[in-house]
Batch of 3 targets.
Target 1
Amino acid sequence: MLKQLEAERERGLLHAHPFLYWRGVAIVQYWSSFEQLERFARDPSASHLESWKRFNRAVGAGGSLGIWHETYVVAAGQYECVYDSMPRFGLALAGAHAPAVGAKETAKRRLGLKGEPAVPTYENPTDA
């Protein structure tokens, strides 16, 4: 499924991040829109649909395997992710990256509101 989505970017997947956690395996996906996600999920020509049907027939509601699925619809400009001295991760991989300085220095400013920094910006110290 992910190979198909990476090859066919027009379907709307922005980024997918598979990872292991204490309960098992997970994949976090970022999509351009809910409509594109829904269209792909129900597309009979999509590579995952037949596997999904087989899985449901084999596992059903027996409780032997759990599924964690959450969907959030977030309006453009109504989210933020801040990364300091680390590589892009999560939502930052799905969108643009900009320094958090000046008009982008506080969460309020980044969301288009007024707000002064709780801690003033400092110049990077030099090695003395």
Target 2
Amino acid sequence: MYYSRAKILLDSKAAGIRCILDGVWTNIKDEEGLKKDCLLSKELGYDGRALIYPKHIAIARQIYTPSPEVLDYYRRMLQAFEKAESQGLAAVTFEGSMIDYANIKKARRILS
């Protein structure tokens, strides 16, 4: 399943699909399993997942929704990059890491 999930994700990104959802968790009673699977799914790069059971909504929302700290981080990143870009730079050190247009593309996607 890991290979299939990764391939679907990569193929979807290559096709330019903006919001990529993982498949349904069918074991409606195993909420801990769903949580672990959502964490793996998010780590792989999925933006969310299809749900069939109302009690799963809160779990998925908790995992896939960026925290206020993450949103603040990407706002700061965007501000730092825009300042650097106005000075003619296409890459800059931000909070100890090098960032460039690929990072900014991700930041804008998350913030949108």
Target 3
Amino acid sequence: MEPAKSIGRLGFRKWYERQLIEGHAWFVSCFLCMLAVAACLEELSFRGPIARVLAFGSFVFLAGVVAVYGFLRYQRIMSEAERLGDQATCATCGTYGRFAIVGAPFKVRCRKCGNEWPLCDS
């Protein structure tokens, strides 16, 4: 239900743009964490002090968790934006993303021609 509030407040196009920016920010975070994991694993040596091994190991673990979480967030955000973006075109006049939310969850009305349709099935 959160996308309906955001779309109603911002408008679809601005909401969609923000979703793409947020999704790609999570992807970049995932990529940077994976680079950090690779760098730490290359530097990790079991011949040094145990504190250093534990520090590198815990950093690798935490960066790996953040990378997995970031990738899952990226997938969720992008799939939701794609799902709603595919249904944001008015079937009557063909206008993309110019609608207002009018009632029931995700019931929208085209601002150009007044056609109403459900934005999503769920």
